[in-house]
Amino acid sequence: MHHPLSTLTSLVEQIARTQDPTAMMSTIVQRLSELLNVEVCSIYLCTPERDSLILAATQGLSPTAVGHVQLAVNEGLVGNIAGSLSAVNLADAPSDDRFVYIPETHEMPYHRFLGVPLLHLRKLVGVLVIQGHQREPFSEEDEAFLITVASQLGSTLYQLHRDGEWMSDVQDASPFRRYRGVKGAPGVGCGRLWLVHPQLSLSDIKPSMTSNPAQQKSDFIDALDSVKEELESGSGRLGKHLPSDVSALFHVYKLMLQSPELSDGVKSLISEGASAEWALKQTIDTMASMFEKSDDPYMKARSEDIYNIGQRILNQLLERDQQVLEAPDEPLILGGELISIADLAAFPQERIQGLVCTSGSTLSHTAIVANALGIPAVMGVEGVELEQNRGAKVIVDGNRAECIINPPQALLGEYKRMIDQENRVMRDLERLRNMPAETLDNVQIQLLTNTGLLADATPGLERGAQGVGLYRSEIPFMVHDSFPTEQEQYRIYRNVLKAYSPLPVSMRTLDIGGDKQLPYFEINESNPYLGWRGIRFTLDNTQLLVTQVRAMLRAHAECGNLKVLVPMISRVDEIIAVREILEKASEALKRDGIEVPRPQVGMMIEVPSAMLLLPKLAPHIDFVSVGSNDLTQYLLAVDRNNPRVSNLFDNMHPAMLVALEQILDTCRRLGLPASLCGEMASDPVAVLMLIAIGYDTLSLSAYNIPKIKLLIRSVRRADLLPLLDKARDCTDESQIRALFEPVLVNLGWSADGRQPPQDSSAA
Question: What pLDDT is attached to residue 418?
């Protein structure tokens, strides 16, 4: 292919005559795709902060992606070109471990890839890319020509970058919006946005309009009537027992609800297009301001009553919104600051297609539970106004840590195709349910499940779990509005033990504190992760521990497969105290006529001191479970929920490798069975390292068991041992991951291990 200098000169002159930024970039990609005879030509320009690049123009990729596809520097092939300031020429881009597939671009059919940086006076302006169907690299002549073109275009595009005009031009091209966060749980989900904490105050209400004034007026009238009924029933129920001043307040409230200024004012604003909530806020503000201007203290105080009654009406309106959204049996995306276990338990699991949280991190409790249930989740999403988008169509992309609000139909269709593909892969993996998790060189790995939600008892069995490695007993406590009774706990524990019998079930005693709080027992501490949590809390509240232990033992008496797991042990006297409580509870039950076989008692290694005290703890325990999430957090002194340092949290840190090997060596010497639970057991890259270290029991979410079993059945432990030797010499987690990731890629997995091969029939 020949590209004479005259061609280049003609191209630059044509571009120079184009004044409109969008038209200029469109001309560039169109003319270059024609000159080079390629299917795709794209320009990515740096954002003003220079920390990421946005697709600014394309010929060949989806036009709806322009202005919305965004890559960080060093993310994907484009980001790597920006980071290294060097050209990349590949025969098959999707097979490169730096490749990141962006669904809305529709770029999957393209293989060969050539990208060069756009520079001006040593400053990065963007990246110029061409792509094609063939599986061969572009010629040296093509590469030289594109580099030359880029050098000529750098100064021209730098002016656009400096002025920033192209940003507004391309980003306003489509109504949908993308928001980035941090990865909570992998996968993709689509549905309508449902706010799990809609009880906002009037001051939180933002301007919003309605396209259905008649419905909004009807909702307001119903809300008004509901508040009237509340007041009537309240005053009637209490009757003559009400103090005179409170009785007078009820009368004032009733008069306010009957006020024409209130009902007529709200209805009038709704007729003008305002939503019921926004109309209510404006009306209440107007009415309250009239009282606030009064010099009479009594009349001034009535403004508080106005706001009180307005808040009551708002609560009813928001509850009606919930009922309207609950009516259709459609998929939901739950949104909120942080979504609790109680929130998740309130919905049928099959309807929850994703979570969007405006705070939290990859290892916040919300993310851990979402992982356990196989629900895609994005945490710490910034800039999104969830309240203004209630009921909107939303895509949650947990793989890319993004949520997309009001996606166009084409993009929605592409994501639904991806969801169908993932579902097909998971259905294909169902055939592994009754097969052993055994490496190609006959190393057996026991796969247990983590569970806790009341409706989450059986998925582990359905996916081939060999028991329960971690039953989170705090979840029944979190979904109640008070401490559950012994009888309530007994029924729950019996159902779980019975479902898995005769397979073992390790039930962890109550573990609250940190980011796991009970709604009816608030613990306020400046540093909750180093405070009153886990066994410290339950030993200080002995009655709670005795009640829980009795319930567990009663269930064990019937099923015989209980193992008691004690969290957050940091001292020898803590495990001794727990053993004494267990023995006393067994004796008390025996006096009541209930013979309880002695259950095995184990401890979680989450605190570094427990790892160092293992020889002294060993006489008092029967087994050990490594809690990888907390052990990593405490070992690295990194708060996994603090966005400023959460990027430093990685289970593959060299210090964790040293700790894991030391724990296993000590347990073998002491004759203690050892398992590992936490997110590390669901991370395919980490699992490869754990197999090499010698861990033969892993506890993970039921959803991830089939994928991890497939991985185990695809590798040889002997092939991983040389990588482990090299990992011992690594100085950071990225080096360790770089050693094990090629194993996944060679097996057809994605580099991060989240996506197994689409055709896994060979495993």
Answer: 82
Global pTM value? 0.61
Question: How many C-beta atoms lie closer than 10 Å to residue 750's C-beta?
Answer: 18
Closest CA to 363 of 606, 98, 525: 606
Which residue among 120, 365, 556, 653 is the active-site one?
Answer: 365
CB atoms within 10 A of CB 745: 14
Q: Which residues of 613-623 are buried (b: 16+ CB within 10 A; e: fewer)?
A: bbeebbebbeb
pLDDT at 376 over 90: yes
Give the pLDDT band (50/70/90) at residue 392: confident
Lowest mean pLDDT among 9-23, 89-103, 300-314, 347-361: 9-23
Average pLDDT in the 44-64 region?
85
Q: Please tell me the distance from the alpha carbon of residue 748 to that of residue 760, in angstroms, as a whole number.
A: 9
- Of 653, 649, 650, 659, the C-alpha closest to 609 is 659
Cα separation, 552 vs 531, in Å, equals 26
Of all residues in the chain, what percent carry a pLDDT higher than 70?
82
CA distance 445 to 608: 26
Least confident piece of the model among 228-242, 423-437, 442-456: 228-242
Query: Which of residues 397 and 367 earns the better pLDDT score?
Result: 397
- Give how far the C-alpha of residue 383 lies from the chain's centroid of Cα atoms, to the nearest Å: 17
Radius of gyration for the chain, computed over Cα atoms and rounded to the nearest angstrom: 30
Is residue 666 predicted with pLDDT exceeding 60?
yes
Helices (H), 239-364: 244-258, 260-271, 276-292, 297-326, 341-345
In the predicted model, what is the mean pLDDT of residues 735-745? 94
Asked if 435 contacts 713 with a C-beta cutoff of 8 angstroms, the reply is yes
Residue 232's alpha-carbon distances to 235, 280, 296, 553, in angstroms, are: 5, 22, 29, 49
Per residue in 492-516, pLDDT (tens digit) is 999 999 999 999 999 999 987 666 6
Please identify which of the residues 46, 357, 559, 677 carries the catalytic annotation: 677
Question: What is the per-residue pLDDT for 237?
Answer: 41
In the sheet that holds 332-336, the strands lie side by side as 177-180, 402-405, 393-397, 188-195, 332-336, 352-357, 377-379, 182-185
Whether the ω angle into residue 756 lies within 30 degrees of 0, i.e. cis, is no
Token look-up 């994928």 returns 707
Question: How many angstroms from the chain centroid is the CA of residue 63?
Answer: 29
Q: Quick one: pLDDT band at residue 250, thresholds 50, 70, 90? A: low
pLDDT above 90 for 668: yes
Cβ burial of 361 (10 Å; 0-12, 13-18, 19+) is buried
Please count the other Cβ atoms lying within 10 Å of the Cβ belonging to residue 132: 21
- Strand, helix or coil for residue 604: strand
d(CA 629, CA 567): 12
Instruction: Report domain extents, the chain.
Output: 5-163, 177-195+326-407, 202-320, 440-734
Q: Please state whether beta strands 697-701 and 446-451 pair in parallel, antiparallel, or not at all (unpaired).
A: parallel
Report CA 22 to chain centroid distance, whole Å.
36
For 46, list phi and psi in degrees, rounded to 5: -65, 145
Tell me if 666 sits within 8 A of 699, measured CB to CB.
Answer: no
527 class by beta-carbon count within 10 Å (0-12 exposed, 13-18 middle, 19+ buried) = exposed
Tell me how far apart the alpha carbons of residues 311 and 223 are, in angstroms, rounded to a whole number. 11
Confidence at residue 8, expressed as pLDDT on a 0 to 100 scale: 57
Contact 184, 398 (CB under 8 A): yes
Report angle CA 627, 632, 633 to the nearest 5 degrees: 105
Which range has the worst mean pLDDT, 401-415, 638-652, 729-743?
A: 638-652
Q: Is 677 a catalytic residue?
A: yes
